DNA sequence: CTGAAAGCGCTTACAG
DNA sequence: CTGAAAGCGCTTACAG
C-alpha cells in the first residue's frame, strides 16, 4: 500500500541501509548513489513513516508546549514564536491546552503523549511547585513563567519583580500618588508582580493601600473591567493603575471609557505582555514588553540541549530581556 | 527501561493479549481480571507507546490543523475550539503554521507528518483550488474557509456572500451612502466578501465606487490602518467602512482615532470574525459573528467520520451559522 | 478467556 | 559502501 523504504531500495537498485543513509544525511555516500536514491524517492513519492522511526530511534523530533489556553493573545503569540523557533531546528511542536486545570496539567506531566514527544515546554498555572518536583516525566522539561522551579528544572522567565518595579516607578514619575494594582490574586504571577509593585511604592515613599490591590478572578478582559469598576466605586479612586497583564488593562480601559473618564489625564494605565491589541487600542497601551522571540528561541534551544543529552546538574535559569513601552495610556 | 505491555502482563499474571484488551476496552474481560491489570498498570506507571500502537494499527488518533498563523486572534480562537472539540473525542490536534506560504502548505498536503496523522483540517491561503485537486494526501481532508473546494473535499464555511451582504445592508440602513470596503484584494476571501458587499449596494440602489474598494497587502491591523489613511485622503471620504475582518477594522479605528474623527458619527465601521478584541475596543466593534464552536465541532466530526471510513461520494459542504452583532462602531 | 507468533516500517550493529 | 537480520512495542489473527 504505502511505499516503504524497501520499495525505494529496490527501485534505486541499492540496499535498504543505503536509502536510510541518504535520508538521514549520513556520510560516505557517493553523489551518484545519492542521486539514484533521491530519484527513486521522488518517483515513488516516498515519505518515511515517523511512527516506525520514532519507535526504533526512541526519538521523534516532536516536543510539546503545554499552555493554559491558546486562544489568549499572549499564549497565541508565544506559541507562534515557539513553533517557528522549533521549525527552524527541524522540530515539530504539539500544543496542549491545559485550561489551567490541575488534572490536565498532571496528564501532561505524566507523559500523556505516550512517549511520543522528546521533551516539553511547560507553562504551569495550577500545578504547585511541590507537585512539579514529584513529576517524573522521564523527559526533559523547561518551565516558563514566574513559578519558582525550586532548582529542579531549567526555566525561562522575565524578571517580573524588576519589571513590575519599573512599571510602577513610571507611574510614580508621572506624579501619580494613588496607584492601584489589578491581578494580585491567585497565581504566583500575581504574587511576584505585587512584590515589585510594592517595592516601587516604598521606594517612592508611598504606602500601599490594600483597598487599591485587586485580585479579580482571572487574567482576562472581563476581570480587568470588573476590577476597574470596583476601584471607581471607591470613596477615593486611584489616579493610576498597574494591570498585571494587557488583557486586564484592556478590560480596565473599557470600564474607564464607559465611565467617561479620560486616560491618562484622570487615570493612567500600564499593562504587561505587549500583545498586539494594546498597540492599536485607543488609547494605545503602555506596557512591559518581553522579547517573545528571544524567549521562544532560548526555551527551545535549552530543551533541545537537554534532549541531546546535556545533563549537567547546573539547572539554568534564563532571564528574558524586556523594555517598558510608553504609549498613550500614560503619556497623553 | 520503559515499562512495556509484557511487564504489565507479567506483574498481573495474565497474557499480553489480556492487557491489550483491557487498555483498549475490549469486551469479555471479567471485572476481577480488569482490576488486576489496572493495579499492575498503576503500580508500574505504564503508558502505552503511541508510536508502536500507531505503527501497528495504522491509526494514531492525531489530526493536523493547518492554519496560516496561530498568533492571529481569529485562528488562535478557532484553534482553541478545534483542540477542545477533538479532545472531547479522544483526538489530539497538531497545529501547523503555514504562514500562508505555498511551500509550507504544499508540505502539509504532501503528508509531511509522515503518516502520523489520520487526517487534516486545512485553512488554505496560498494554495489554489487547482493544486488542491491534485493534492494526493492519501488522508481525509476537511477544508475551512471560502476557497471553493470544487466538490473534491468536505468543507465547513460561513456563507460569506450573504454575511457581507448583511453587514453592508446594515450600514445602508443607517443612512450611509459612501460605504467603503477594506480587504478586497488577493485572497478568495476578499473576492467573495466583495461580491456580497456589491450586491448589497446594488440592492440599495447605490453604485460601487472603485476608489472606495481597498485591497491592502494583508488582513492585519497595520493593513487596515493604512487603507483607512488612503480613504481619508480621498477628495470625498466615506461615511462608512466594511472591513473584511476584525483586525482590519481595529486598524481602521486606530486611524480614525488619530484623525480625530468620531465613530460612528463621522464614519461607521463593521468588521468580520467577532474576535474578543473587538468586544472591548473603544468603540466596541460591530461585526459578523460566526459560531466558532459550531464550526470547530462540525469540522472535527466531519473529519472523524471520514477517518472512520465513510467514503460516500457526496462531499459535504457545511454552512456555519452567524449573527450580525451590532455594537458602538455603528450604533452610537 | 490464554499463549505463542507474526508483522507494522524503520534503524543499526554485524559481517563482509 | 552492501546485505541479511534483529528488534523498537504494540495489535491481531490463530489455535486452543
List keywords for this structure.
332 residues, elongated, DNA-binding, homodimer, 434 Repressor (Amino-terminal Domain), 6-stranded parallel β-sheet, 6-stranded mixed β-sheet, Rossmann fold, transcription regulation (chains A, B)
Polypeptide structure, described:
The structure is a homodimer of 332-residue chains. The first copy, chain A, has 332 residues and is α/β, with parallel strands linked by helices. The first copy, chain A, has 13 helices and twelve strands. Chain A has a six-stranded parallel β-sheet, with helices on both faces. A six-stranded mixed β-sheet of chain A has the order 7-6-8-9-10-12, with helices on both faces. In chain A, β8, α11 (246-258) and β9 (268-272) form a beta-alpha-beta unit. In chain A, α1 crosses α2 (16-23). The radius of gyration of chain A is 25 Å and the shape is elongated. The mean pLDDT of chain A is 89. Chains A and B meet through α4, α5, β2, α11 and α12 of A and α4, α5, β2, α11 and α12 of B. Chain A binds a DNA duplex (16 and 16 nucleotides) through α2 and α4. Chains A, B: GO terms for molecular function: DNA-binding transcription factor activity; transcription cis-regulatory region binding. Chains A, B: Residues 3-57 form the HTH lacI-type domain. Chains A, B: Keywords: DNA-binding, Transcription, Transcription regulation.
Amino acid at each position: 500500500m504505502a511505499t516503504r523504504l524497501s520499495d525505494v531500495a529496490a527501485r534505486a537498485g541499492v540496499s535498504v541501509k543505503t536509502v536510510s543513509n541518504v535520508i538521514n544525511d549520513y556520510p560516505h555516500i557517493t553523489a551518484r548513489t545519492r542521486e539514484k536514491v533521491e530519484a527513486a524517492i521522488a518517483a515513488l513519492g516516498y515519505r518515511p513513516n515517523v511512527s516506525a522511526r520514532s519507535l526504533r530511534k526512541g526519538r521523534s523530533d516532536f516536543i510539546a508546549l503545554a499552555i493554559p489556553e491558546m486562544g489568549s493573545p499572549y499564549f497565541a503569540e508565544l506559541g507562534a514564536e515557539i513553533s517557528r523557533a522549533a521549525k527552524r531546528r527541524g522540530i515539530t511542536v504539539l500544543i496542549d491546552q491545559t485550561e489551567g486545570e490541575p488534572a490536565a496539567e498532571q496528564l501532561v506531566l505524566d507523559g500523556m503523549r505516550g512517549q511520543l514527544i522528546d521533551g516539553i515546554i511547560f507553562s504551569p498555572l495550577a500545578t504547585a511547585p511541590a507537585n512539579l518536583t514529584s513529576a517524573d516525566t522521564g523527559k526533559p522539561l523547561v518551565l516558563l513563567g514566574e513559578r519558582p522551579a525550586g532548582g529542579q528544572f531549567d526555566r525561562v522567565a522575565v524578571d517580573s519583580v524588576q519589571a513590575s518595579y519599573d512599571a510602577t516607578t513610571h507611574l510614580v514619575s508621572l506624579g501619580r500618588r494613588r496607584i492601584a494594582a489589578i491581578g494580585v490574586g491567585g497565581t504566583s504571577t500575581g504574587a511576584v508582580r505585587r512584590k515589585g509593585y510594592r517595592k516601587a511604592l516604598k521606594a517612592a515613599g508611598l504606602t500601599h493601600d490594600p483597598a487599591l490591590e485587586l485580585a479579580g478572578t482571572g487574567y482576562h478582559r472581563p476581570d480587568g473591567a470588573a476590577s476597574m469598576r470596583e476601584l471607581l466605586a471607591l470613596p477615593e479612586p486611584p489616579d493610576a493603575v498597574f494591570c498585571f497583564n494587557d488583557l486586564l488593562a484592556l478590560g480596565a480601559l473599557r470600564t474607564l471609557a464607559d465611565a467617561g473618564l479620560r486616560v491618562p489625564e484622570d487615570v493612567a494605565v500600564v499593562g504587561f505582555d505587549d500583545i498586539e491589541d494594546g498597540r492599536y487600542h485607543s488609547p494605545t497601551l503602555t506596557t512591559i514588553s518581553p522579547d517573545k522571540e528571544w524567549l521562544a528561541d532560548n526555551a527551545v534551544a535549552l530543551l533541545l540541549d537537554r534532549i541531546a543529552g546535556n545533563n549537567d546538574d547546573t539547572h539554568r535559569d534564563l532571564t528574558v530581556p524586556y523594555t517598558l513601552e510608553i504609549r498613550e495610556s500614560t503619556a497623553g
